[in-house]
């Protein structure tokens, strides 16, 4: 039930969709380290400060693997070193300056479905005109760019199942018009 409420609460203030044009943009991957491309399997591996951009979508981390399906779509998996986080941001189709930003230990972006999954200390922020309007944290966050829905999941501790990692949603109030 809590999972459903968090997903609903994040969906209500964000009725726009991700930049529609992003789906039809090329993906550009830049990196400071090495790249290995397996031509038979269709898998590329990149290391050292990797950034992948596709229109307004930007994903960055320490390592990235791009695997191409037989249909030609890609699955991008990004991982970070011990003390770093993988990050993403994407502009929305809203008329105002609206972005969704997120970070976590690992991420997977499934190009075919415009679905991004953030794992490990996951956090997603909604930013409008430079102001944070919502923040969600949890063990796993899934961001559906096509429908503009964010799903947050809490998790139990592997060592102690009685100890849970709580998920949280913070919705910011509107600005007080009398304080301007």
UniProtKB/TrEMBL annotation:
This is Organic solvent tolerance-like N-terminal domain-containing protein. InterPro entries: LPS_export_LptA, OstA-like_N. Keywords: Signal. Residues 1-18 form the signal peptide. It comes from the Bacteria. One of its GO terms (molecular function) is glycolipid transfer activity. Gene3D superfamilies: Lipopolysaccharide (LPS) transport protein A like domain. Residues 35-148 form the Organic solvent tolerance-like N-terminal domain. GO terms for biological process: lipopolysaccharide transport. Pfam families: LptD_N. GO terms for cellular component: cell outer membrane; outer membrane-bounded periplasmic space.
